[in-house]
Input
Amino acid sequence: MTQKNKIRVLVVDDNILIRKVIADFLTSDENIVIAGEAENGQEAIEKTAQLRPDLITMDIEMPIMDGLEAIERIMVSTPVPILVVSSYLDRETASAAIARGALEIVDKPGIQGLYGSDLLKKVRLLAGVRVTLHLNKANKSMVSNAVALSFDRKMPPPAIVAIASSSGGPPVLATIFSRLPGDYPLPIVVAQHIANGFAAGMVNWLNSKSPLEIMKAKDDAPLLPGKIYIAPPEYTMEINEQKRVVLLERQPNDIFRPSCNALLNSVARVYGAATIGVILSGMGNDGVNGMRAIKKAGGVTIAQDETSCLIFGMPVLAIESGCIDTILSPAGIAADLIRLAAGNARIAKGT
Output
């Protein structure tokens, strides 16, 4: 690979030793070069505009300007894929960074290099992602703009919502969950791609946005109405015939964590036509097979629209496969989930 085609990374951290550790990890791959370094958020904004890197590794806690403000400003002015490199103590704050437009989170590497392999994989994966998020524009786009594709059939009342989500998904989940009523009558299960150990921080952040109870799913937990279950990335989550959570050991060759396809396929098997499937922003094709399974079982399938997606990869692949009934903005998805669940609530009340 020529110098021109190599992945150019801007490393942002206030600790010079950590910057060196990250740079050493990354340059162990001959296809990655360090475009520059910055020791605070203000410097990161300036160097992003000057150097136009392919990717930024961003610390959160820094002097002058922290990583959260830097991410927000960069994504408005000069959108670049941003990988948050956070320590254990920053995890809830790091989850807030995802809401501002960062694509992923990884643990801050120790001096011994324990996380180098994961860091390299994330950089290779994210560097080629095309991001176009403008936060002010994105907020304005959160209005319902439905495009019905093939939704003209009778269906049983829905009994569950299953959501596949990846990069760019957490703020969309926050928008959807914030608009659902506190007495929403269906359980919701979510597979959101996220690094090991960060689910709890994301759950806490989402809980601050929603009247519903959001929790990290536990093995053998029953699925209760109005509860939202987030799949832990350390396991593969499925739903069994007893309509309870099953957490399975991840396999070494599992690419995505947690697996959207595994969760959605299991929901389609158990709930069939009573399933509402939703696929949100993200790269790759995880969740597409699961949405096909829901469609084949007779359930309702919804995809996030391109305008509001940080990355339209997963939704567009599902749409192109012909398994999507409706394309909606995040606010539109919330409105449709309320509308679809209304039949379930009326039946439960005997009206």
Summary: Residues 330-348 form the longest helix (19 residues).
